[in-house]
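Objective 1.3, modelling of assemblies. Example input:
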Amino acid sequence: MIRLEKRPSPSAFWQWATPILAVILTMIAGGIMFAMLGKNPVEAIRTIFWDPLFNEQFASYSRPQLLVKAGPLILIAVGLSLGFRAGIWNIGAEGQYIMGALFGAGVGLALYPVETRWVFPLMVIVGVFGGWLWAMIPAILKTRFNTNEILVSLLMVYIAQNILASMSLGLLRNPEGGGFPGSRNLSQIPAMANPELIPGTGLHWGVIAAFVVVIAAYILLQRHILGYQIKLAGQAPRAARFAGVSPTRLVLLCMGLSGALAGMAGLFEVAGPSGQISIDFNVGYGFTAIIVAFLGRLNPIGILLAGLLMALTYIGGELASFMLGLPAAAIQAFQGMLLFFLLAVDLLTNFRIRFGTRKEAL
Amino acid sequence: MDLGGINPAILIASLMVASVPIILAALGELVVEKAGVLNLGVEGMMIMGAICGFATAVITGSPYLGFLGGALGAACLSLVFAVLTQVLLANQVATGLALTLFGLGLSSLIGQGYVGIKPPLTGTVPLGPLADIPFFGPVLFDHDWMVYLSIAACAAVWAVLKYTRLGLILRAVGESHDAAHALGYKVVRIRILAILFGGALAGLGGAYISLIRVPQWTDGITAGAGWIALAIVVFASWKPWRVLLGAYLFGGITVLQLNLQAAGARIPVEYLSMSPYLITILVLVIMSSGKGKAALNAPAALGQNFHASR
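Predicted structure (tokens):
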């Protein structure tokens, strides 16, 4: 008979080992799924995880993409992880990402055709503000009216998507675009572009921001009183209240921070890799970042690695759909599966599995 | 009787159709939450129900089997949630989100061969002369059987929760799993069954979208209906009849904005399409504010995992 025994404190070994175990299990289950789709599972897994980095033919294109895709994922996931640690669930990062891009791009386009290098920094600031503002709506509703932030932040994504559609068809549409939806191409306007800084690396300002944010979040959580309060509020909400941690302040801070970072990611994306505001410029980074945050165990360094891995599945997925005809949706299911396995094996961190009958209680 | 090109009888009739998916999914979630489990994967289960139901109906040619398939498909997905949260004690919020992300991916994977196909038609229930009554005929007696089933399901859930031993046990498990466990009830088993029931109902709701309401298959067809169902449960303060009310309110707004779009109202389409979500948020705010009116009714053990240490 198998039973679970709660560990006195989470196992340090399993804390690091579970993400790796989850990735391996996902590869096995994903392989089975690919086999059911009639693809060679070994080849599919190799195409996703190995070829983008080491295949001579594709690596020169794929390697820079790794940073391009990982940048926004890491930026968003670090922000989300702070809230998740405190038990504050912002799952509307996708909406905040869209609004950040809209705000930032809107300011840039309003100033068109000003040619000064201050336009881009201004766009970043306004983009951050846009994401922050969008996250503040669920945050304030939560603190003022006790509304569930999970539902509101998620519903706000649908509203943001409609605003995006309206903007790319109306206000922000390229007046010289021949009536096609979508804004001017920001990446081709020097004052507004977020260019590749070192050719062939994929490094743009968003990636640099992601690295800075990882370090800042690490310091915040390890060395700063606020980081301590965040961890305390998540693990022992009652104790946190007695210790004078204001839940209201924490909600506003965590939601605001994650929104600001998501907005920043959106702006860097729209001014760089994506280039323009269009109806479907958002590709779900805000949702995938939730998986990244958990895969990185809500730890900034872990998120850095998890973001790179998740970026790899995006690139590998594209390669696999190009090479093997693997449907793009299969990758989405694959990523979802990863979160399942992660949550499942997390059991090992907090519980021991015991075989045999139970001993007498002490 | 015409109001700016909108016929009220047709409006109410289509309102009832529009709210069926939400009623079913919200009722399922209500039972799950009454058992103390917060399953945020309603959206994922609905869309799995939508594609499984659609595929079954297209393959067998029978919409009835389609609904069965939808319920089964979504129940299978909810079983994953049940195992993860009840057996492996995973965080319910995170697992629910995973369910939605996975469901969206898997459904579009399954649905690849079904884009652009028409499903077999589900006829209206023949109620004979009743359907010919002016105004009340089209409003009440000219619907497919799922509309009536959704109302019946509402009554059934209400009666079971309020008057039966089963309902009492379910509520006990949701209010205090430790007490229920001490009384000898199998907390985990009851919760798993509740989750499966919730999954099946969400699947029925999803299948209704792809088989009757739209009716065709496109990726992301549920468009947030699962999240709205979750919000409706809060709006309803965990009371079945209020679910019906909330869903009709929501359905009314959806239908009204669609009619306004069709009638060529001056408001841009995008702002009309976002109105259901806006109203849902507004309603959530109203219900949650003031001395925590809605929260007072929430099952006490909602979202807490149960591990029998003794």
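DSSP finds 13 helices and no strands in chain B.
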